[in-house]
User: Fold this.
Amino acid sequence: MEKLRFLLFPLSLMFWIIVSFRNWLFNNNIKKSSEIKKKSICIGNLSIGGTGKTPHVDLLIEYFINQNIKVCTLSRGYGRSNKGIKEVKKSDTAKDVGDEPLMYKDKYGEKINVIVSENRKKGVEYIYKEFDENQIIILDDAFQHRRIKAGLNIIITDYNNRFTKDFILPVGNLRESKKNIKRADVIIISKSPKIGKLEEEEIKREFNFNPNKIFFSRIKYTELKAIEKTKNETIKNILLVTGIHYPTPLLNHLKQKYSVTHMKYKDHHTFTKNDIKKIHKKFDTFALDNKIIVTTEKDYMRLKQFDSLINSNWYYQPIKIEISEQEKFNLMINNYVNQV
Assistant:
């Protein structure tokens, strides 16, 4: 492994030079960034995949809806089969708009506007034009999209894979240099275990960042939700089907209560009818009784198109995010939204 890292180092150096030069152009106004006129929050990261951006976007959506603040999300729509600007409808499929945008729309319906556009600048302009009543834009994974400038930048980093201990692609998983955290306003350390204040303070010191703007978040798994109305009350065995970057926390959570067999697909896997057949074939043989199939809420967005094949044995696992010092975090968000 060390030899491979050594061989990839020249590529990382080249990648770092290219990205650093691009950032230098923006930092010196040679390339222009457009400030978003309305209130806007970017949820992003410095590394590729698996930090938990999606549930944090969901956390903010729910918070603003509860505050009666009209909210719109803007994302690339990763994994969709088309390009351009599109307003997400509940009737869309993940192939049309991507799994994450569809999940937001499926969950909140008419309470939220969801837009996908690979060109975030054009996406923002579309929101200005079509949703004049919108009060805040949440940009999903736009920290590296420097042609636009959000009002508040929140970086998510995985507790077990903190960017402070990572390296530039392809040796590591960083999209850009760690020093560019200076463009962020807030850091959230996601998927954190329950740790004491002393350990929290020690971890915060790794970041060379205002400790008052660093928060820890934890995943809270809520009750399994049956895809059909029927519900199995005696669950002992679970066939877990995932197509996400890092399913280990979910796997470990379910193993605390059930016997679990895991069918793991690559991140954002496009499920097919043949996949469904293989899953059902495995389900028939992996345990005798008291069994169900469980997937993630995000994966279910890519499975919904096969509703006619999905029966009462299927469930998905909803999740919530809990932020340490929640009141302090909410106050910070409110102060930004309400500032003139």
Remarks:
- The first strand starts at residue 34 and ends at 35.
- The chain has two domains: 32-220+322-338, 225-317.
- DSSP finds ten helices and 16 strands in the chain.
